[in-house]
Amino acid sequence: MSLRWDIFCKVIDNYGDIGVSWRLARQLAAEHDLDVRLWLDDVTAFCRIYPEGDPTLSVQRHCGVAIHHWSIHWRATDTADVVIEAFACELPTQYIATMAARERVPLWLNLEYLSAEGWVEGCHGLPSLQGNNLKKYFFFPGFSPQTGGLLRESGLILRRQEFQGNAQARTDFLLRIGVEAHEDCRLISLFCYENSALPTWLDGLVAEGASHILVPEGRIIPALTSYIGEEVLQAGRIYRRGALTIQVLPFLSQDDYDLLLWACDFNIVRGEDSFVRAQWAGRPFIWHIYPQEEDAHLIKLDAFLARYCEGLSEESGAEFRACWRAWNQCENSPIDWSRIMGARPELAGHAEHWCGQQSALENLAYSLVQFHQNWL
Ligand code: TRH
């Protein structure tokens, strides 16, 4: 009989919490033969990234995962062998009591946010004593063997490389989502938070040859609308100014969004999950990190840059760092796009190299399963 795993996820805002929890649940069920329940307080957010879902159901099954609406009116249920609270969401008190009452208590894990900071390695896997004789373990994803690694499904990199090596597959995918791409035009995906640097960035791009920017509907649309000077910018609209094409896409399914990252020459991503997927895409990218109070996010940004830029030439590394910092500090000093583009062959090679290095580490789902086995 398969082991039971429960994953609890509260959608704070945006799609990162649900995006990570859903990928993890799916992979645990598909690759580790586990009986996984995913408890979500917001099933509607799940249906945005997985449109086959039904927001009205309290229980539904997809890809081998039982998805339960985590209602504020908690109904008693049996507990699982492994319990994951994603991003420190608090478990229902009755559920914790049931965990404590079990003859063999479950493994209780708090899955933390991703960070490249060094302290993560010292904290990964540490227990913290809770009431009721229970322990909760901190589980950190990360970029080194001393962490839990990154979410990566089996065979992902090979599938991505095959897709990128197959021009027809790329064209077919793009046409399916309504994009006609021209060979001599760079394709850039844009998924980011509000950013006052956007107009200067777009102006810089206009000066740098043909670009086709693909923007799934989201928080950046109002800024794009005022840049373009139109009243409404919605999915399906294509806007052209000189060498610049801006195309708004509907918000894609998570699987299609992954393909979009594979299909583009350059990606702008944000948060946590799209940030990891951009790395698996093996293409140069800019990360718009989730802004935190007192600029705490900039420390996280630098920690990642320090790891990522290792192996880049001094010049390209400096350009790359400057570009990421400018984007994240929303500076209106223009990102020197011509220099980024000049460094693109090196950046592209480096992106693939980084992807190879990271994919040689254990993936997060596997690390969790191993952690449980060692704990038993
Ligand atoms: O939505 P986000 O900004 O999520 C953030 C971060 O996770 C952040 O760390 C967290 O603290 C905050 O939420 C609460 O960015 P992220 O993490 O990239 O998640 C977006 C998800 O949406 C990802 O799984 C990809 C998916 N997606 C689609 O399914 N379709 C789309 O068209 C797009 C653009 C994204």
TrEMBL record:
InterPro entries in alphabetical order: EarP
Native source species: Zhongshania borealis
Protein name: Protein-arginine rhamnosyltransferase
Domain of life: Bacteria
Keywords annotated in UniProt: Elongation factor, Glycosyltransferase, Protein biosynthesis, Transferase
GO molecular function: translation elongation factor activity
Family membership noted in the UniProt record: Belongs to the glycosyltransferase 104 family.
Gene expressing this chain: earP
Catalysed reactions listed for this entry: dTDP-beta-L-rhamnose + L-arginyl-[protein] = N(omega)-(alpha-L-rhamnosyl)-L-arginyl-[protein] + dTDP + H(+)
Functional note: Protein-arginine rhamnosyltransferase that catalyzes the transfer of a single rhamnose to elongation factor P (EF-P) on 'Lys-32', a modification required for EF-P-dependent rescue of polyproline stalled ribosomes.
